């Protein structure tokens, strides 16, 4: 988000809505002074899809197409339109985020979905030591620092990365070595 958009967000009372995109994002008004991208969103409890106008601009004031697809579950921040010309209400979006994202599992390389708030690294089949996240604080990216790895429905095994990392220390302690 650009600095201009951030400043505008602070100065306005923005509304947050959640829903599912029901159409692809398309460009409108490309030959006018103010082109925009638009789509439709299905809100919970509503029978009619709400038109959404995306007016998100980059650093050089260029219009940015949101990388969203039909059926994405999203959260939008913006304002409802106050146009006397249109009877149908629309929503002008200034910021957005995906609520459900598709990722590639670090363990098995399969694709899986998760919420953007949780943002897991592993799919549910590959969780390591009862965690679906890669440990960012520990030195070892494979285990939780214990040197042991526990996959679901698998016997506990030693961490190969820890074994290799500490191999030099074991050789120094070995009194039978040359």
Describe this protein's structure.
The protein is α+β, with helices and mostly antiparallel strands and 178 residues long. The protein has two domains: 3-98, Nucleic acid-binding proteins (OB fold (Dihydrolipoamide Acetyltransferase, E2P)), CATH 2.40.50; 100-173, no CATH class. 12% of the residues lie in helices and 30% in strands. The protein is built from three helices and ten strands. It has helices at residues 3-11, 160-165, 167-173, and strands at 15-21, 26-28, 36-43, 50-54, 73-80, 91-98, 100-104, 111-115, 148-149, 157-158. The strands form three sheets. The chain has a five-stranded mixed beta barrel with strand order 1-3-4-6-5. Strands 7-8 form a two-stranded antiparallel sheet. The protein is elongated, with a radius of gyration of 25 Å.
- Radius of gyration, Cα only, in angstroms? 25 Å
Tally the helices: what do you get? 3
Any low-confidence stretches, pLDDT <50, length ≥5? 1-11
Shape: elongated
Distance between the termini: 62 Å
| CATH level 3 topology of the largest domain | OB fold (Dihydrolipoamide Acetyltransferase, E2P)
CATH H-level name of the largest domain... which superfamily? Nucleic acid-binding proteins
Number of folding domains? 2
- CATH class label of the largest domain: Mainly Beta
Percent in helix: 10-25%
Order of helices and strands: HEEEEEEEEEEHH
Mean pLDDT: 78
Structure summary, number of beta strands: 10
Report the portion of residues in β strands.
Answer: 25-35%
């Amino acid at each position: 988000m650009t600095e201009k958009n951030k400043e505008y967000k602070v100065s306005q009372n923005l509304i947050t809505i959640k829903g599912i995109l029901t159409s692809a994002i398309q460009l409108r008004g490309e030959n006018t002074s103010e082109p925009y991208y638009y789509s439709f969103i299905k809100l919970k409890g509503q029978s009619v899809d709400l038109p959404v106008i995306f007016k998100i601009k980059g650093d050089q004031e260029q219009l940015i197409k949101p990388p969203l697809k039909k059926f994405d579950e999203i959260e939008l921040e913006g304002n409802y339109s106050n146009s006397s010309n249109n009877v149908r209400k629309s929503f002008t979006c200034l910021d957005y985020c995906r609520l459900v994202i598709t990722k590639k599992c670090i363990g098995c390389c399969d694709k899986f979905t998760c919420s953007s708030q949780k943002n897991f690294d592993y799919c549910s089949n590959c969780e390591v030591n009862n965690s679906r996240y890669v440990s960012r604080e520990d030195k070892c990216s494979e285990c939780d620092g214990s040197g042991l790895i526990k996959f679901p429905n698998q016997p506990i095994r030693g961490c190969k990365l820890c074994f290799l990392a500490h191999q030099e220390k074991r050789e120094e302690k070995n009194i039978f070595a040359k």
